[in-house]
Amino acid sequence: MKTLSKVIVLSLILSFQLFAQEETLIGSGEVTHGGFGGPVIKYTQVKGEPSVLVGGRGGWIINHTFIIGGGGYGLANDIKANNPLIIAPGITKPYLNFGYGGLELEYIIESDKLLHFSVYSLIGAGSVSYRAELFDHNGSDCDSGGSPNDAFFVFEPAANVELNIVSFLRINAGVSYRFVSGVNFDNLENSDIAGPSANLTLKFGAF
Fold this sequence. Notes:
- It is built from two helices and nine strands.
- By secondary structure, it is mainly beta.
- It has a single domain, classed as Porin (Beta Barrel), CATH 2.40.160.20.
- Strands 1-2-3-5-6-7-8-9 form an eight-stranded antiparallel barrel.
- It is elongated and about 65 Å long.
- The termini are far apart.
């Protein structure tokens, strides 16, 4: 019985040692957790015209290295439609609505350094439709009711440089490329929506 007890104790000790030495994708030892959220501005092109997208992103930070989260972005300036939607005589929806969002996965390199780098990818979907900024003689917004729209797939990889401002704030700047598939709206092609972006993000959180 004593021999069996010794064997069990020895086996448990060896098991704990092996577990402690195990290497994993997220790192060895205790796993740390954090999170962030913040606004995003993207400068890009839509239909070959300068465009600004605004939105936000956030996520769960694992071991100061991996981020699992999401983001969403929408067109902030006026881009004229090729075929404006006519609602009634004198009332049209002459501009494009454009937005997208989805799952974001980010890898941060040496996050404790004052200046460091990260790479991430967004995988998701978007839509494009018509909108109006017209008013009737009483000043009421005429942009009421729905309009045709089209959904598409989007994949956007990015490379960023990040600056630690204070413990709860980081400024992230980088470039990305938006790949899209499935655009079939207003005589638009995938290439009218796809393209590079220059991105600026303010990250607030526990890193």
